[in-house]
Amino acid sequence: MNLTLKVWRQKNASDTGRLVTYEAKNIIPDMSFLEMLDVVNEELMQKGEEPIAFDSDCREGICGTCSMVVNGTPHGGMKGTTVCQCHMRHFKDGDVIIIEPWRARAFPVLRDLVTDRSSFDRIIQAGGFVSVNTGGTPDGNAIPVPKTDADVAMDAAACIGCGACVAACKNASAMLFVAAKVSHLANLPQGRVERERRAIAMINQMDSEGFGNCTVTGSCEAVCPKEVSLDFIAQLNREYGKAILKNRMERKLAGGG
Amino acid sequence: MKLDAKIPSGPLAQKWDKHKFDLKLVNPANKRKYDVIVVGTGLAGASAAASLAELGYNVQAFCYQDSPRRAHSIAAQGGINAAKNYQNDGDSVYRLFYDTIKGGDFRAREANVYRLAQVSVNIIDQCVAQGVPFAREYGGLLANRSFGGAQVSRTFYARGQTGQQLLLGAYQALSRQIGLGKVKMFPRTEMLDLVLVNGHAKGIVVRNMVTGKISTHAADAVVLATGGYGNAFFLSTNAKGCNATSIWRSYKKGAAFANPCYTQIHPTCIPVSGDHQSKLTLMSESLRNDGRVWAPKKKGDKRAPGDIPEDERDYYLERKYPSYGNLAPRDISSRAAKEACDDGRGVGETGLGVYLDFGDSIKRLGENTIRERYGNLFDMYEKITGENAYKVPMRIYPAVHYTMGGLWVDYNLMGTIPGLFVLGEANFSDHGANRLGASALMQGLADGYFVLPYTIGDYFVTGKQPKPNPTAPEFTKAVNDVEALTKKLLSIQGNRTVTSFHKELGHIMWEKCGMARTEKSLKEALQRIPALREEFWKNVKVLGVNEELNQNLEYAGRVADFLEFAELLCTDALHRNESCGGHFRSEYQTEDGEAKRDDDNFAYVAAWEYQGQGKPPVLNKEPLVYEEVHMSTRSYK
């Protein structure tokens, strides 16, 4: 099939950027969306034009590297699917496809479809971990974990940190990303020890990175390739609220007030 | 070159404990005086960087991805082995050790493998403490499943995303140290050369992949955890960015490269659908717990799988290897699939595929149980192929997956260049000629969490090297070399894209040095690779400039290295006149088509030493001495 692409081209962070039209010819339905872009890039290079820069790595939907907005929807709108796993059989001959980068203040564009998502890393660095050093840990079976808790933790931990939730949100909020990590660890006994500290530190970092506020529209959940549930945002709000209260009480007990 | 593996003396089971005591220590206050560079942030790199920083060392960590969380360890699906014996089914450290040695076709170093089995139990404890959400039973204890090459259930897992969860555990530990300022993280930064001062590894040259800036970093030791070289085959289950540049350029600086011909072809991948294919996708080995592998008995049988009656199906793994059945090791299962297809009994449009059928398990356990166990894999299969594997059997075919060879290291994980440590898939140490499923995660984390943190201090104390000076002429020269190479790549402006060269190389490698190799095919490859490389340097087209985000330039450098490395891989395969594990030379097989080892002549590690451009490498041999196990013919029948 033949397609018309309108692709965001931007030379670097300071360039203004624009949509440029390309023809994608002889596309096979079994190709993935990124393989279709590979074909277009090969042709561009043959003609001496610089290829479209886009991020991708594992191309099996787990590394979270690929990131582009296709026809207005992050990852292309296939339920629970990253754009690398979205296949061309879902498009029709003659389709016009608009391809843009993630758009959020906290994810500046570096080139074409490539953005800088290091703000996510800094949120994890602020508190998205359990503070244990290597060695000296108890036996893996020392603390039984109810299967349902482990399953819920895993549902949250499935987040691949791609940033689609931010790209889909009209406020560019990172709440689903933060909620996934906070909930993952708060649902396990090993993570509960620091739950208050973690929730506060991660939320503070999120705010300082320039992400917007959450108005619970659910657009994040709708595009999440791992289908991380909006319920975790409710849990995050609970965790945060309890943490703030507990913090106050602790200060009072310590004579702080 | 003298290869000293530094294997401790004494009984096998006590070697590691004894060695840990003999290793020199750096006192806590002095650790902060040492700088360590860690390249790669997968399981091995992230766990090492985090653990070293926790001990007090100053760490600089580098990765080519935009975040350390994205290293390709993340794609490992099935699980991680550990000799916990939680299932009370007869597992032990010794059994895991023995299974690994046997699985590796008696081509791994005994002492290393035993240590790996020993620390495997600590890994699980560590990961649980980090909050890795392993699968659990209703009683709250950890669940296990079985993997190939073992008759016990010792594989721990987190759905079909075990690699992801273990990597996030290590990434979070690393992030904690970044937050504390003990690790300085450099994402989107690619290592382009190793710097030696006084014969010791003292730094690296890197390119910032956003600005193109070339810079140097100095440290007291350099740790490479940069993964394997499977992408030399173009199509593999590796991520697009996986490359051999760090280990290859270190080889060219004097690090010996061991057993490059040991490449693992994984039996259960989604078959190739056309020339456009950019990578192959693995379907976890764990599926063989409940899926049955078969091909039609009749040649060229084009009927739909459901129309082929039971007695016209050949469940060839169950037939040939009744005691291990569908859980035969990877090398054996892959060759059996190839045999069926070569015999004209392959399925699918290309005829390069066999069935992995869940029909019986769904009948026995119900679709829901299968969905619970492998749901994400079935979804992924459907996304790629458009087929529902609950209704029709999966089609699978072998694909390049893992590379057992890598830079040679001693028992301390130090290469032949002092101060250069190599961890995880990038080294050669633990898997011999074939790796068992769920053992790569185990090795990566063992090296990073529990081996390197002990051994690196001994090097600092006994090496007694002066602090590296980043303005030393060695650093300036390395930068000049890297800049010259970049300029050259950009100045050729030929007619062929980098991808076209990579695809052609991959085709040569798969056809001539893939699942089965012969003297003739390897000699052909050794003719064609240098010719292709020559054409590359005359006719490659790399657009843009260095001083920008230039993905084509990054790729060109990696392919240039694969074009050199592939020749060493084929040279090693040609010299090894035997079949063992993933290295199958068609001339050397038993009457029933199994790999035929030659222990008299080839029970050694082949460590190749670079001699300079255009000169043949020198072969060094480390004899494999088995004190504990008896080398036998592998049998899974």
Model description:
The complex is a heterodimer of chains A (257) and B (637). Helix content of chain A is 38%, strand content 11%. Chain A has 257 residues and is an alpha+beta fold. Chain A has two domains: 109 residues, Ubiquitin-like (UB roll); 137 residues, Alpha-helical ferredoxin (Fumarate Reductase Iron-sulfur Protein, Chain B, domain 2, Orthogonal Bundle). Chain A starts with a strand and ends with a helix. The relative contact order of chain A is 0.13. The mean pLDDT of chain A is 96. Chain B has 637 residues and is an alpha/beta fold. Among the domains of chain B are: 134 residues, Succinate dehydrogenase/fumarate reductase flavoprotein, catalytic domain (Flavocytochrome C3, Chain A, domain 1); 130 residues, Methane Monooxygenase Hydroxylase, Chain G, domain 1 (Up-down Bundle). In chain B, the strands form six sheets. A five-stranded parallel sheet of chain B has the order 5-2-1-9-17. In chain B, strands 11-15-14-12-13 form a five-stranded antiparallel sheet. The two termini of chain B are 41 Å apart. Chains A and B meet through helix 1, helix 2 and helix 3 of A and helix 3, helix 5, helix 6, helix 11 and helix 12 of B.
Topology:
The complex is a heterodimer of chains A (257) and B (637).
Chain A: E1 3-9, E2 18-24, H1 33-46, E3 69-70, E4 73-74, E5 96-100, E6 109-111, E7 114-115, H2 118-127, H3 147-157, H4 164-168, H5 175-186, H6 189-192, H7 195-208, H8 219-223, H9 231-253
Parallel strand pairs in A: 1-5
Antiparallel strand pairs in A: 1-2, 3-4, 3-5, 6-7
Helix pairs in contact in A: 2-7, 3-5, 5-7, 5-9, 7-9
Chain B: H1 15-22, H2 28-31, E1 35-39, H3 43-55, E2 58-62, E3 80-81, H4 93-103, H5 110-130, E4 155-156, H6 162-179, E5 183-186, E6 189-197, E7 200-208, E8 214-218, E9 221-224, H7 245-251, E10 257-258, E11 263-269, E12 292-296, E13 313-314, H8 316-320, H9 330-342, E14 354-357, H10 359-365, H11 367-385, E15 394-403, E16 406-407, E17 420-422, H12 440-463, H13 473-492, E18 496-497, H14 498-513, H15 519-539, E19 540-541, H16 551-575, H17 599-602, E20 604-609, E21 618-623
Parallel strand pairs in B: 1-2, 1-9, 2-5, 9-17, 18-19
Antiparallel strand pairs in B: 3-4, 6-7, 7-8, 10-16, 10-20, 11-15, 12-13, 12-14, 14-15, 20-21
